[in-house]
UniProtKB/TrEMBL annotation:
It comes from Pseudocercospora musae. GO terms for biological process: phenylalanyl-tRNA aminoacylation. This is Phenylalanine--tRNA ligase beta subunit. Residues 290-368 form the B5 domain. GO terms for cellular component: phenylalanine-tRNA ligase complex. It catalyses: tRNA(Phe) + L-phenylalanine + ATP = L-phenylalanyl-tRNA(Phe) + AMP + diphosphate + H(+). The keyword Nucleus does not apply. It is an enzyme of class 6 (ligase). Its EC number is 6.1.1.20. Its cofactor is Mg(2+).
Amino acid sequence: MPTIAVDKAALYKALGREYTNKEFDELCFDFGIELDEDTTDDPERKGAPELKIEIPANRYDMLCFEGIALNLNVFLGRQSMPKFTLSKPKELLTINITEDTARIRPYFSCAILRGITFDQARYDSFIALQDKLHQNLARQRTLVSIGTHDLSTIEGPFSYDALPPEEIKFSPLNQEKVMNGREMMEFYESDKHLSRYLHIIGDSPVYPIIYDKNRTVLSMPPIINSNHSKITLNTTDVFIDITATDKTKLEIVNHIICAMFSMYCTEPFTVEPVNVVSKHNGESRVTPDLSPRPFQASLSFINSVCGLEESPESWSKLLAKMAYDVRPSETDKDKLDIDIPITRADVLHQADIMEDAAIAYGFNKLPQEFPTSIPAGGAGLPINTLSDIVRLEAKSRWIEVMPLILCSHDENYAWLNQKDDGKAVRLANPKTAEYQIVRTSLVPGLIKTIRENRKHEVPLKIFEVADVCYKDASLERRSRNERHFAAAWAGSKSGFEQVQGLLDTIMLALRYPWIPEGKDRTGEKAKGYWVEGHDDPTYLAGHAAAIYLKSAGKQVQRIGIFGMLHPKVLENFEIPYAMTALELNLESTPQNDVSRQTTRFIVSRYTTSSTATLGTLHGHKAPSFSVIWPTGLVHRATALAAVKTSSSRTSCYEAVHCEAKRFHRTASSTSPSWYISTDDVHVKVERPFSLPTNHCRSPLVSSVLPNYDHTSLPRHALTLDTLFEQTILVQHYSLNFGNEQAYILSICASGVCPTQSLNSSDRGQYSAPPTTKSRNTITNMSPILVTISLLVSLTTAVPAPHHNKHHIEVSLPEPVTLAPRQQQCQVDSCTTMFRDCVKSCDSLQNADWYVYALNNHREWEVY
C-alpha cells in the first residue's frame, strides 16, 4: 500500500478543524485508509510535522494531498464532489501522432491547465503525484509516462514522433548541454533516479519524441523532459503530455492529474482539451473526456450483503459521501443509477459500490450475526493431496524449509555446473543479483539453506515441496509452474543411503513398489519404480542415479534424480561437508491414481452400535460409539485404542495430545518398567530407566479424555514420534478407570528399511510382550500387519496388574527388525492376514469386520 506524507497543519486546515491523533486515526479507519505515523514528536525530523497515511493501492485519486483532502471533505459532508468540465477555447490546440510511434509507445493523451497558481507546497505535490503514479499505476514508467511543460515557452500545433536516437537533439531537464538520444542514454546510466528507466527504450531502434511547431523538443518519454519547457513556480499554463503502452491506464493517469490540480486553475475544476490526431490507428479524439461513467447497482445486492434494508433514497445519500452521484432508477425499483466520477477508476463491479456503501454506512454499525451454516470445502487438487502425502512422510525425520523462489542466474546454472537451457523466467529489472530469475530447480535453495546453517550440528537433513517455473510459449501467460520435491543431506559422510532410504519411504507411501532388475519394468501391467546410474554435471560421476516410474497402462517416465553433489558445486556454494541431494517431479506421478492408493489401509469394526473412526480421517456412519478403535500409520507410527465398558453407559477414550514429560524409575529392582501417573483426564508418560543416547528419540506422552464428543474427533487420533532409530518398538498400555477398561496399543516404526536393533545389553531392560502370539506375529511383517495381529491379541489379553487405579502398567517387548522392502503390503494380503487373525479369536467371531481405505475423494471405501 502506498504511503503518502502530507503536511499536518495544512491538512487539518483543509478539513476545517484540528484533530487529535486518536480522532484522525478513527476518521481514517472509518473511510478505509490508515494513519501510519505522525512525525510531530520525532526528534530527528526536520521541517513541519507530517502525517503519513497508507492508501489502498487502487485509490489513485488519493496519492496526493489534494486527493486526500477532497475525499475526506466529501466523506465528512463538508462539500459535494465537484463537477469536472472542459473549457471551450476558440481554437483547440492540436497534436499529430505519426505512424512510427506504434513501434515504441503507441498511445498518447494530453490536456492543458490554464491559469494555475503554484506555491511551493502545490508545486511539490504536483511533482510528487507524478512520481507516485509512475511508481504504482505506471509500473516504473513501463506502461505510462507523464511530461509537464510550461505552455508559454512552446507553441502548437505539436507532434509526437519516433526517430532514431542520433536524430534527436536537445538539452535535457536541468542541463545546458545539447545531446543526442544516444548520448543522453550514456549520460544517465550513472544517474540513480533515471537509470532505472533506460532499459524501457534502450534497445529500440527509435526513441519517442515530442516537438512543438518550431521543432523545439518538449520531452523524450519515458526518460526526460526538455530543459526548455520546464515548469517553475511562476508557470500559469501547464501542458500535460502522456504516452503509454496501455490505453486504459493512459486515460486514468490523465484524469487523475487533471482532477487533482484543476482546483488551482482560474476556473476551478475546468480543463482545456486538446485535439489528438492519430489517423493511422483510428485513435483521433479530443482529450481528456471528463464525463462521469454511468453505472447501475442492485439495491437488493447491497442490502443483502450488508445485512440491511435501506431504501434507495437512503443509499443515495450515503453513497454521495463516497463521491458518487446516485439516484433511484426510473425503470427498475431494484436498481440505482450511479454516475462514477473520473477519479474513481477503481470501480469495476457492483461489489465495489457495495463496499463503499458499507463504508459510508459504517462498518462498525453493520449488524453482526453468526452464520446459519458452514459451507463445506470442495475437494482439494490432486497435486496438493500428493504434496501433503510426500510432506508427511519426509517430516518424520527431516526438516522442511521454504527458500525464496527467486535466485541468481549463476546459482541456478553455473554454480550447479549446468548450462543455460533458456527455460528460466527472467525478471525484467532485478534489484539485486540474487533475484534475477525464477528457479527451475529446488536444489539451489536447499544448498543455500545448508550454507547458512553450516554452524549447526551435522547431519543436516532438509526438504522442500514447492513449485518451480519454466517458460512455456504455448500458454497465454508464457510460463508454467511445476510441483517438485527435493531433499538434501549434509554431514561428515555423504548420506547417500539416507537419501535413497527417503526415496524408498516416499515411493512406499505412494504405493509404488520397487521393481528389481530382471523383473518386467515396461509391461502393460507393470507398476513401480527403480533407479539407474546417470551422469549429470551437478553430481559426482558414478555417484548419481535417475529415478524411473512405471504406472499401470502408462509409459515409463523419468521423474527425478539423486546423488552426491560434485565437489565443484560444493565449493561454489561454500559447503564444507559432503552432500547428497534428491529432486522429484511430483507432477510426473499420476495424481488421481496416487491420491486413491496412498492412504494407509485402515482396520475398522462396524456394527449397529459402533462405527469406523480410524486413521487420519474419521468415518460418519453411525451416531453411537460403544467401541472406538482409532488406528493409522502416522509418521510411520501407529496408535490403536480399544475401550471396553462393563456398564450399560457407553463412553470412549481417545488419545489426542502429545507432549514431553520427565521420567522416573520404579522401586522394583527385579523388573524395571514404565509406569504412567494418571488422573481423571490426563495421562502422562514417565520413564523409569535410561535408554542409549544414540537410539533415544523422544518420549511418548498422551492424554485420555473421558466422554469425548465424537462429532469433533481430531484429524489424527494420536501422533507418535519414533523412539529408536531403525527399530520397531511395541508398547502395551492397560488403562483402568473404575468399571471401564481401555487397552491401547502403539507401534513406533523406524524410518527406512531398518537394519539393526538395540544392543543385546539394552534388551534385558525390557519385559516380555503381552502374549507369545503377538511376539511371533511381529517378525518379518509390515507395520500394518503388525497392527492387525496385535489388535486381536490385546482385545483378548488380560490386563496387567495395577498398583492402583491411578497407575498404568507398561510392558516393553524387545525391538525387532524388518528386512528391506518387507514393509510393502497389498490390499489382498492385508485382508487375508486379518481374516485369519479374526478366525483364531473366538471373541471376535460375532462381529462384522472390514478393511477400509480412503479414495481420491477422501471417502471411505471397503476392500
